[in-house]
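Follow-up to my earlier ticket, as requested here are the two runs.
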Amino acid sequence: MRKVTIPSHSVLALLDRELRMKGIQPVYIWNVYFDTVKRKTEAGILLHSFSGETFPFPSELHPFVGVLGFINGKEPGEGTIPLHIAVPKEGDVLSIAYIVEGVYKGDFSEAEIKKGKVMKGEKELQGLKLVHQYVATGKDLEEKPYEISVIEPRIISEES
């Protein structure tokens, strides 16, 4: 485990503080991957899972479940901007959710939250389970360093 400093006003830092206040512990890994578009190796922080939160899907779906962060129902930069770099504006709605690959169709921005469920019209949105939602305030946007702990990927794979 190592400490990484990120901006306190990033989406990841804001959601991290909120989740911890609710007793949910985010688990982050240091992700090293090859970007096939840029044709180079890159690294970043990946929100892997949560301790203190019940897994919301059947265990057979576990290999297909990931965690996504959203600003106003959309992934920052259509999924190209990491949450530890994305910075919201005052009034933006920040959300964190489990998604099931192949089931979630990317239409969260067209949905609304009703009694903790993500609804599109009268139907519950399939393949997405909201963990937390938060509205960014002016005081959140002050930039300071913020530390989070990340796990090296080899430790995650040894635990799996």
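Run two:
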Amino acid sequence: MNHDSAGSSHLPAPCLVDHGIVVNKTDMLRLLNDLGQVAYTDTHAEDVMSKGTGYIMDVFAEPGLSTLVANQSLYLNVYSFDYIQLEKLPGDQACFKLVQENRCLQLVPLTTPIKEQATRNIDPVDLEAIVAEALSASWDACLDDDGPLA
């Protein structure tokens, strides 16, 4: 067991796995940063005010700025919320409930970080083949339009 020089013990940091409440703003940022595309539902005192799908464009921690949801884009300020409640929906779907008093912005990811990363990482050899094929098709189209070379 570790003790500091003052003799007081340190409590371990919380460990949450799929369920729990997150109040630390840094932890909230980390949770929301890689969500990607989500289905969202905005409720006020159990009344659904809005719902749709969108893409998380930015997650930030700025006390004076708003959280914005418009045009299928979400700009989330963790200071807009008191906490995030982590849950699992039926079918093991992750659910993030961003809560502020009697308001809840529920986010259900439509992609996972693993799927998002896979789509971002195109193999360089595959990319080279795609570019070569596109250039070849472009040259063929130019030759067809100009007629035979003299």
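The only thing I checked on run two: Confidence is low (pLDDT under 50) at residues 1-5. Let me know what else you need.
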